[in-house]
Structures are given as structure tokens and as C-alpha cells.
Design goal:
By secondary structure, the chain is α+β, with helices and mostly antiparallel strands. The chain has one domain: FAD/NAD(P)-binding domain. The protein has helices spanning about 15-25, 55-60, 60-70, 105-115, and strands spanning about 5-10, 30-35, 45, 70, 75-80, 85-90, 100-105. It has a three-stranded antiparallel sheet. The chain is elongated, with a radius of gyration of 18 Å. The protein starts with 6 loop residues before the first strand and ends with a helix.
């Protein structure tokens, strides 16, 4: 007798693991996410890139993420102590949004984990 088992265990409750869990759950899988409740605090936020925005939309979390994040219309790097180079994301083209977010990682992880 053949059984169609649709149960998946995911090790790691970060953004990738939780996103995968959400997408599998929407397809009818039973999903267990195994993760540590406490992770080391990161002092600086995480800089997302425009390619992540469509995934946030697909998961249905962009509106929540934007409530606690810093809007980023581009990226800057320091070439040396006196010179900064900046490039707007709108220069990238390719149909991606012309923005991203700098997110506090603890809040971002919690949003992705709890949104399912």
C-alpha cells in the first residue's frame, strides 16, 4: 500500500528555513521547523537587497517588515576615509523594485518565523 506522506522537517528557523516552511505549508505539507529560540544579538541591522522584495511580497510580510525597518533606495560604500560611492537601486533595472530595507535581524527573523 503506497502512502503519500507530505511531512517535512526543516532544521533552522532563520529567514530561509521559515520561508521554505511557509511555502511548503501553502502547498499542503505538514512542516516542522527546529530552531534555537535565542540567537546571538547582532548590533547592526541586516541590509536586504531589491531581489528580496518579491519574496517578502510572496510570503505576505513586506508591510510588517517595513514598519520596523529603514527604507534603502540604494547602497553606499566608503572607498576611503574621505570618499563615499553611492548607487541608487533604480540603476539596476531588471524589473526589481528600486528599494530594499535595512532590518533589525531579531525582528525580521521573528516576522518570518511567526507569519506561517
Amino acid at each position: 500500500m503506497k502512502r503519500d506522506i507530505k511531512t517535512v522537517a526543516i532544521i533552522g528557523g532563520g529567514p530561509s528555513g521559515c520561508s521554505l516552511a511557509t511555502l511548503l505549508k501553502r502547498k499542503g505539507y505538514t512542516v516542522g521547523v527546529f530552531h534555537l529560540e535565542k540567537r546571538p544579538e547582532i548590533i547592526v541591522g541586516e541590509s536586504l537587497v531589491p531581489a528580496i522584495i518579491p519574496y517578502l511580497r510572496k510570503l505576505g510580510v513586506e508591510d510588517e517588515v517595513k514598519t520596523y525597518s529603514t527604507y534603502k533606495p540604494g547602497a553606499s560604500v566608503w572607498v576611503n576615509k574621505d570618499e563615499e560611492a553611492t548607487s541608487p537601486f533604480s540603476f539596476g533595472g531588471g524589473g526589481l523594485p528600486p528599494y530594499a530595507y535595512n532590518v533589525p535581524r531579531v525582528k525580521f527573523d521573528k516576522t518570518i518565523l511567526n507569519w506561517r
